[in-house]
């Protein structure tokens, strides 16, 4: 009889956002009279920018014409998009990133889950705590995380780096040496971020200790303050120690369209001099047939002057929501973080409630859905996340309901 990959059986329960979805759907079905406002999963609500829609229409028309039809996309991405990315997201910021270091994909979630495949099976990982659950889950699936302790919700082989109010939600350098370090800034879930000097310390550490940093910059479009790095390649030496993940989901509203990319510099090599760029290209070649032509044309449109203006406006709308949540909760006496360089607001639960107790309380009393902090890791206990990706009307109503509790 066949057997399944037992690593999958080690995963606790269901994926965080699936658990929340099930709970909320059950509540909504039992209480059809209530209007539930969902500020849990970080999914966008604004429609796609007009420049993107126009590019999609043009590309669809090309696909219906024998002279301009496109079959399989190049597995690493079309040159027109890779070039626009390299020029706008990196070279314009003074980061030396070339077109052949950009790997286009259909999502940063899958990139962040898949990237671990190119590292040795016994690699040790370090993650911020709280953490986007995909980083740990994907390493569990690869059998890399040792034994699960249900009491603390931690894995024996994972180095958890607590990010708390005490350290300003910036992790300290690990005492034991990891092989792979996952960093996400602006952070999901805390919404806090680090300065360029703080990120430089991580780059220096990784180069000194021979570690690789997997830097998730999915929320970089939300940075509003000076001195916050938009890319890890703004730091000196990052080309020899860092991979960067980017997404079109949060900056341009592509959650339902799917487009992202990963940067793997050619200078990034393992202890035997093996190039990670070549390995990741090899993996794409075998496992991936490229993001759709029409979607890559839509991505290219994001970099046009109109596209840039339209996505800035979209980000501005979500940040208006973030300010409303931040200020409203402060007025109501909550301890709140994030929401300045990020679409996430991280709040301390009142009266020592656990994260899940507060989740149930908010759902039942205010009919508002958020994300329990403990779902992101042990240091997330007694915290709660609200997203600014709702509509303005829903955001105002949700905050007003919370204030009225
Ligand atoms: C979140 O809510 O943390 C994100 O939306 C999840 C994701 O981007 O996959």
Automatic annotation (TrEMBL):
Biological processes annotated in GO: lysine biosynthetic process via diaminopimelate, diaminopimelate-aminotransferase pathway
Pathway(s) per entry: Amino-acid biosynthesis; L-lysine biosynthesis via DAP pathway; LL-2,6-diaminopimelate from (S)-tetrahydrodipicolinate (aminotransferase route): step 1/1
PROSITE patterns to which the protein is assigned, alphabetical: AA_TRANSFER_CLASS_1
Enzyme class: transferase
Aminotransferase class I/classII large domain segment(s): 35-402
Cleaved signal peptide residues: none
Residues annotated to bind pyridoxal 5'-phosphate: 72, 108-109, 132, 188, 219, 247-249, 258, 289
Cofactor entry: pyridoxal 5'-phosphate
Claim: Hydrolase is one of the keywords in the record: no
UniProt keyword annotation of Protein biosynthesis present: no
MF (Gene Ontology): L,L-diaminopimelate aminotransferase activity; pyridoxal phosphate binding
Function: Involved in the synthesis of meso-diaminopimelate (m-DAP or DL-DAP), required for both lysine and peptidoglycan biosynthesis. Catalyzes the direct conversion of tetrahydrodipicolinate to LL-diaminopimelate.
Database matches in PANTHER family: AMINOTRANSFERASE
Complexes and interactors: Homodimer.
Name of the protein in question: LL-diaminopimelate aminotransferase
Source organism (scientific name): Candidatus Eisenbergiella merdipullorum
Gene: dapL
